[in-house]
Structures are given as C-alpha cells and as structure tokens.
Amino acid sequence: MRYLLFALCIGLPFSTLSQNPGKIIFTSQPGVNVAISATYLLTPKSDLFFTAHMDSPLVRYLQALSPAMDQETVLKQGNYQFSLYVDNRLCYQSNLHPGAPSAAAKIKDTVLSRPLINYKAASASWSEYYWMRFLRNGGDSALTEGPHLLRMEIRPYLNDPVKGIKTGALIASGELPLMVDRKPFIDTAKIVLNTPAPYNGLTASRGNFDRNTVKLLKGNIEAGVFPKITSIAVIRKGQLIIEEYFNGSGRDSTHDVRSVGKSFAGAITGLAIRDGYLRSTEQPLSDFYDLPAFANYSTEKAQTPLKALLTMSSPFDGDDNNDQSPGNEENMYPTDNWVKFALDLPVNTARPAGEWHYFTAGVVVLGDVLHQRVPGGLEKYADHQLFRPLGITRYQWQYTPQGVANTAGGIRMNTLDFAKFGWLYQQQGRWQGRQVLPAGWVQQTFTRHKNIPGRQEEYYGYLFWNKTFQVNGQTYEAYYCSGNGGNYILVFRNTPLVIVITAEAYNLPYAHPQVNTMLQQYLLPAVLR
C-alpha cells in the first residue's frame, strides 16, 4: 500500500513519458559518473561498471505497458530487459527476473548503477550474472582479440499471463569501444615454479612432470584468466611435486572449502562403525530420533538408513539444486535448529525412490547422529581418531546453532592437510604404516552407489563424487570432494595421484567449469604424461 501511495505522490500521466531514451555510461570504477572516454582495454583483470540515466522510474514504464494493471502486479510480472550487442550484432538479450532490483528501487530510482565485471570484489550480483550469461551465450566467441564496439540497451518488459511478454520502447542505451586482450601471452621463461618442501608427513620432490605446461597454468592464474584460485597441490607416488599459492594465500593459509567438508563426515562415519558406536550404514533414523515427535511423520522417514544420507538418496523433500524445494539448504540456515528443520520435512512422493538428490540438511542429520553416539562428541572424536593420526592440528570447524561441528561443510585447514586427507583415501585408509581408516570403508566409499541425474557417466559414492577423465587417450577415474567456489580434493583410482585445488569463486557460475579446464588442459596432461 505504501508503494501505491508513493507512486500517486510522484506520478504523472503515462503520456508524459519522454520519447528520448536515456544514456548509459560505462566506467572502470563503481560510484563515479565520468564515462570512459577512450577505447577501453578489456583484459581478464578488468573491471567494468555501467550507469543508466532514465527519464522515469521503471514502474512507470511498466504501467505504460499495461495501464489496467495495478502497481503491485506489474512489479511482480515485469522488469528490465537487457540487450548486449557486439559490433552492432545482438549477442544476448535477457529479461531480468522480477526479484531484482528491489520493488522500492523500481518505484523511485531513475539511475541504475551496477557492475558487469568486478574482478576483485565479485559478489555474484544479478548484473554480474548477466554478464557471465552473455559470455556463455555468444559473447565469449564474439569478443575475439582486437577492437570491438559494445552496446547496451535497456527496455521494460511485462509478462502478461494472457498476452505473453510485451516489451516497451528503449529506456536507455550506450556504447563503449573495446580493445579486447583476454588471452594474454604467457612467457614461461619468466614464470618460476615454487619448489615444494617437506611438510609434516609429506616428502617433497621436484618430480617428473611437464613443467612448461604447469608454468602456463600458473601464468594464466596470475593473469586473471582463472580468477580467485588460491592454491594447487599435487601428490604423486606419495611425494609432494607441485605446490603453488595465489591471490595472497600461502602454505599456512587455511581455506573455506565449503562442501568438501561433507566428505570428512563420511570418514568419521566409517570410524564410528569400526569402533562399534554405529552398527552399520543400514541403521535407520528411528534408532536415533523419536520421529513421531517431528512434523510429517511417515514410516518411510523412520526407516531411512544412514546409507541414504551418505549417498544423497533419502526420501526427504530436500534438493539444494531446486530453489523451490522446501528442504533446500537456503531454507535451513535461517532456522534455529537445522536437525529439526530436516526431520520436519515431508517425504517427496513424486521423486523415484532412491534417486540421487543433493541434500545438505541430510548430512547435518548424519553429523548429529555421530555427535550423539561417539564418545566426547563429534569434534573431539574426529580430532582423536582422524586428524591427530594424520598430523593435522590446525583446523577450524563451523558449527550448527546447537554448537555441533557442522558436517554440511566449511571446515578450514591448509592445502597440504587437505592433501593428506586425500592421500589417506588413495592409500586405502593407511597413513605412514598405520591403518587410520578401514580399507573396507574406503572401498564402500569409492563405489558408484548412485548415478547423478543429468550428468553422463558421473556417480556418487559415500559423500564423494565420481567421474572419469580422458587424458592423452587414457581414462583416469577419480573420486573427489567438491565445494562451492571451485574447491576440490581429487583422488585417482588407477594411478597414485591426489590433486587439491582451493578457490574463492563462491556462487559464481565459472567456479567449477574453470577448475575442469585447469585439470583437463593443464594439470592432468602435465603430470600423467
């Protein structure tokens, strides 16, 4: 109601909308109103912002498209349409989802100032996502090396439930001459690789690998071609052969690897079964919780085995890859009890029984089960039974609202300690002659329990992913931990190799694809030649 009153106070008849489109200016810094006056050099480390000056707030353009619609409706059904042209050819056009910008901004703002590229402070904002979608949908191939003309146009659009999408006249436009230099020349003669040093249980070696290819990778990371990478470590045949750090990180830096931490929950589950605190992975949730006391009780929930939590195949209606799913992790975090959130969820009767679906809240429940059953609680037990035997002493958990170590992810440690965890699995649970983790548990973990829907020849074990790489005509199977931002611990099955990559490209769409490129085009050919 207050939005309607505000609009009435400032409103003018729709016919008074200017017929002259506003201007869009491009800048290299946020918060400035001076346009780039010369051809702009676009490199992997460039920043690019735009400011659109409009004759009226967006809501008036939307109401002009459908005068019979009330303000609340047009704000829910309409927004800006952005078009990007390269050399006068339309490359990408997108109708912005009505959720952003805010309703208040659409009602009062006549200036729209946003980042397209924010190299150092990328925040996964809607405008940055738009630029990334532009690159994926024709922009990348259009912006070849050399001179180009970039043009942006903004229009209003309205998604009428009866008449469909209706687009209005041009609101604002602007052009920017570019000199594109996004593929820098890397002089490998000037790139110096770090010499690995021994580390608390890891020996080091200069190793026999294609140093020139690794130099090319290092040079491209430093040039910003692969942004927000913080470290790379490679262990081959038990020796640390590659150890590189980027963007201010170092050997002592600890990294927030997000869902990589889920795989640690799998290891602790194996230890708890070994020590008799859990009977088996077939043990049902009814052994640990009074499930009739939670919402949406069903026998199917009560009979859910721990194995279903380990393989992301429980019947709960939770899917982190579906924004509309009631059990999506983003709905869990604001609550004051994550375990209750999960156990209150209904069963998803539409999904085929046993089908894989990424369900973070289920791993939180697994962590709570462990915390209940192991002596001293999850954190103390993991320290004594897993971390100390590996010589890992400097790490930091995140915690649930109940103060339990968070198995959803986020455990921090340095790159080489993550590498030791990977090497433990590569060696069937042995570390320096000691069987830290049962070999049988490693075998169960490294089993293709579930196909991953929508991914050809990719599978899921016990909180480890699985895929096969093609390198130099050979296939190499890897089980791996993966976390938001481009964080990985890869454990190869048919060759004694572990690769760790840490990164901070959180919520950015290029995070995982760029790591795959780094692996396929650089690291794996270099070390598997």
From TrEMBL:
<dbReference type="InterPro" id="IPR012338">
    <property type="entry name" value="Beta-lactam/transpept-like"/>
</dbReference>
<feature type="domain" description="Beta-lactamase-related">
    <location>
        <begin position="231"/>
        <end position="503"/>
    </location>
</feature>
<dbReference type="InterPro" id="IPR001466">
    <property type="entry name" value="Beta-lactam-related"/>
</dbReference>
<keyword id="KW-0732">Signal</keyword>
<dbReference type="Pfam" id="PF00144">
    <property type="entry name" value="Beta-lactamase"/>
</dbReference>
<dbReference type="InterPro" id="IPR050789">
    <property type="entry name" value="Diverse_Enzym_Activities"/>
</dbReference>
<feature type="signal peptide">
    <location>
        <begin position="1"/>
        <end position="18"/>
    </location>
</feature>
<protein>
    <submittedName>
        <fullName>CubicO group peptidase, beta-lactamase class C family</fullName>
    </submittedName>
</protein>
